Amino acid sequence: MRGPHTTPCIVEQVDRGVRSLAPAFAELGVATVHESQGRGGLMDAAIKPLVVGARAAGPAVTCLNQPGDNLMLLAAMDLCQEGDVLVVANLAPSAMGMVGEIIASILIARGVAGLVVDAGVRDIRELRRLPLPVWSRTVSAAGTTKGGPGWVNVPVVAGGATVSPGDMVVADDDGVVVVPLDAAPAVLDRARARAQREAELLASIAAGKVPTLSPELRDQLVRLGVRRIPAS
Q: How far apart are CA 82 and CA 150, in angstroms?
């Protein structure tokens, strides 16, 4: 762990200034948000939703755990507030089942908007019935210990993406994307503009105006040396 928090600690203060933007980010979705911030912030494709159609967005509460241990996850739960997305990372790769029905039920009671676990979860049948959107790397019934020191609300790496407390986390069927707290308003503006352009294009297609390859892309093919062979 580098930076100001080199020894295990729990940081209680989280800047939740992006919370009011969460509904708009959730509606726009992961793919649009990802494209609107230079194709950055996307967690790797192994982080998947447990339930098709799940959607969540909100400021991040983070925890960094020892592999196979969920003590810091439990500590982070105490700091979760309504609308937060809890992001669970580990100091090394882990496939242990860090979250099950009881933890999920506590998070629901706290009003948490979503849970992202860069490890395993268990009690899958129960989790799929509960109204907590969950994304995880894998499923495993293997339990965890509760004796490893770690960190709460410090920058972590989950699914290959850096997540700082208070960052906007957006998750749906396409995966999970992270928007830095300070960049969130500008990214939202660009995402809204992109969504509007796409809506207009789809309406045009539905009206029978099917677009062809643009002149710019045709020129790109020529520059790349792609030969066009006319129909005989």
A: 24
